[in-house]
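Fill in residues.
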């Protein structure tokens, strides 16, 4: 039995096929086939039109990119020739001042990230449990906590750091508070979603033997979510190292202050040295955390 075409089958063709009628081709054996019109050119035209309209509405000028593209190459060229005096101080006392300045800011960034990640992750776990519908049956509490977490995740880290610097003053303390809040929002969100996917059989069995919710969760659910929780903590630490490097722009301490300073002086060679030090730290932390995550999984 021959397959009926779309019209014979009673299926309404797509709008595109109704506007641009497919061509009917007669084969050598007398059979006819319908060849639809290619949609690729129309999609390309629509995409180009949307880009041009968006550029027009936002004042984006492609000519400026072409004209100022050489400046990008000039700046990158200076960045990729870093000021090695920031590292020579490790063995040359004459450059000790620059090295001490860089290492101090780098250590501040690392300390902010580690402390903020640890505190934020610790606070996130009980909130994630309370925000899980399979553990907490109070819909009011669940939705209240989820709305709070949504608000926290909506705020960019720089905005949180700005408010923290206004409240607690300039310095690493404000940066640490910002990282705590950011880590808390991210891990709590990911954890309550993970908790809702675990096997609740052991939890319910433990409760049936008279254990309270905390005891049941700790003995039945915690072993299931612990590897995931630790993996999220390590992932957050990676993100926070990068985030902490720019918090100095709003007065939250760390490498951001040093980066802002050298950019203000157009000292791109020093910027290259700072970014190189940051890259080495991020590379070490990422590879270490990746190894730990593989062992956890």
């Amino acid at each position: 039995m021959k397959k009926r075409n779309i019209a014979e089958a009673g299926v309404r063709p797509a709008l595109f096929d109704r506007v641009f009628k497919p061509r009917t081709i007669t084969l050598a054996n007398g059979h006819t086939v319908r060849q639809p019109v290619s949609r690729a050119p129309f999609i390309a035209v629509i995409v180009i039109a949307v880009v041009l309209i968006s550029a027009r509405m936002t004042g984006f000028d492609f000519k400026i990119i072409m004209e100022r593209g050489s400046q990008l190459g000039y700046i990158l060229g200076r960045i990729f020739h870093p000021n090695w005096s920031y590292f020579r101080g490790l063995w040359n006392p004459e450059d000790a001042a620059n090295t001490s300045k860089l290492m101090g800011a780098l250590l501040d960034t690392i300390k902010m990230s580690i402390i903020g990640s640890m505190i934020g992750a610790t606070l996130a776990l009980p909130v994630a449990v309370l925000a899980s519908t399979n553990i907490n049956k109070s819909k009011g509490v669940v939705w209240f906590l989820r709305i709070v977490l949504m608000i926290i995740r909506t705020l960019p880290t720089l905005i949180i750091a700005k408010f923290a610097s206004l409240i607690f003053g300039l310095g690493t303390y404000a940066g640490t508070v910002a990282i705590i809040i950011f880590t808390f929002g991210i891990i709590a969100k990911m954890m309550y979603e993970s908790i809702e996917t675990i096997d609740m059989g052991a939890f319910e069995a433990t409760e049936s033997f008279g254990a309270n919710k905390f005891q049941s969760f700790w003995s039945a659910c915690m072993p299931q979510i612990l590897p995931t929780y630790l993996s999220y903590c390590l992932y957050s630490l990676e993100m926070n190292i990068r985030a902490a490097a720019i918090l100095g722009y709003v007065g939250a301490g760390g490498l951001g202050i040093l980066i802002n300073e050298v950019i203000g002086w157009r000292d791109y060679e020093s910027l290259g040295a700072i970014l190189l030090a940051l890259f080495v730290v991020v590379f070490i932390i990422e590879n270490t955390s990746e190894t730990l995550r593989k062992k956890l999984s």
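The chain has 13 helices and two strands.
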